[in-house]
Structures are given as C-alpha cells and as structure tokens.
Write a structure and sequence with these properties.
Elements lengths: L1 H9 L2 H4 L9 H33 L4 E2 L13 H7 L9 E2 L8 H6 L3 H7 L2 H10 L8 H16 L3 H27 L2 H28 L2
Antiparallel strand pairs: 1-2
Amino acid sequence: MFCYIFGELLYPLELASSPEIMEKSFWYRVFYMTPSFFNFRMRIYSGFILGECVCIAMGLGAYPKASIPQPGAGPTNFSALEELGTKNLSSIEYSFETVKNIYEYGSEFWPTIREGIRSWNRTVQYWLATFVYKQLTVSKPAKICVTMFVSAFWHGVHPGYYLCLCSAPLFLFVEAEVEKAFKLSAPYSQQYPFSSILMSYHHWPHLIVLQALALKH
C-alpha cells in the first residue's frame, strides 16, 4: 500500500487520462505508462491484501496446514484432515492459503506469461480452471480462448478487458513455441537463465496491452 501511495503522489494515475497528458512530449507519455501501470498494480495488490485481511479477521478460509490448502480450492489432503479429527483443536496449526489471492513475487518477477497469470487473482483462476476450462471437451487452444473470454466477461464490459484477456491465448501459444524451440537448440545448463531473458522480452507486448488497459482506469 505504501508503494501505491508513494507512486500515486509522484505519478498520479489521473494524469494519464486527462487532457494535460497530451501537452507532454511523446516520449514522456510513453514513459508515463510504466509508473502508471506500477501504480495500477500496487492498487490492485492493496485491494487483494486488504480482502485477505478481512477474510482472516472473520476466520474465513482457515484450514489445518497439514491439509495443504490451495487458493480457491481449500484442503487438498483429506486424509490429513481425518487424522486431525482426533487431536486437540488448539494444537492444530492453521493456514489461510485458501483466500490468498495474489502471489506478488510471481506476478512481478516470474519470466513467463503463463506463470504470471497463475500468480494473479488465484482464487478466480481456480474457479475458471475448474468450472470452465476443465468442463470443455474441445481442443486445448479452444479451451484457453473460451476461458479467457469468460474471464473478460466476468471482469465487465470494458473493451480493454477483452483486448487484454482475449489476446492472452496468442501470447501463450507463441511463448510455448519459443520455449520449445529454445529447449531443442540449447544445452540444459543454459535453458533456464536464457529462457528467462527471452521470456522477459517476449513479455513486453502483453505488458504494453496491460499498460494501455491501466491508463483507461
């Protein structure tokens, strides 16, 4: 939250959508997308974290840590839950991983779009994967397209949502092909560091789309 407040003071998001921004130079406007998008992400992170705090304060999403709870899914080790049934409840260690909606480090620093998507809005990701993606009987690319369209519709009717989310399948396909080609042509010891660099550059087109979306808000 501090990052959002500090960033908003230096580079207010409102300037990006105001007529005053057009008085700035072209390169300044291009540069302004980066701090604006940073502020946008920090604002979303703050909302996610505050939402998690509310759930924790109300005791929602609390499961024994031994049950290995996952975001949105709840406990995944049911045999551990049965074993805990005979123990003193006060001695059980609990986890709120079920309501942990954002993995900030992965969203910011993981090099691939696929990993970045999985780090973002994880409880909704689980719902989309379980009730949309896995329910479809079409090909994998079609599943991804339909799931992203449902996600865009769930977000709202703003065209930016559809531009951003419905373009993701294309980027995911290109990313997979780049990874596949690189793994075939590079030694194993070079694959991780160099693929990280390649994926970072490959991330830029999607980042620009997200930045444009952020400026609309």
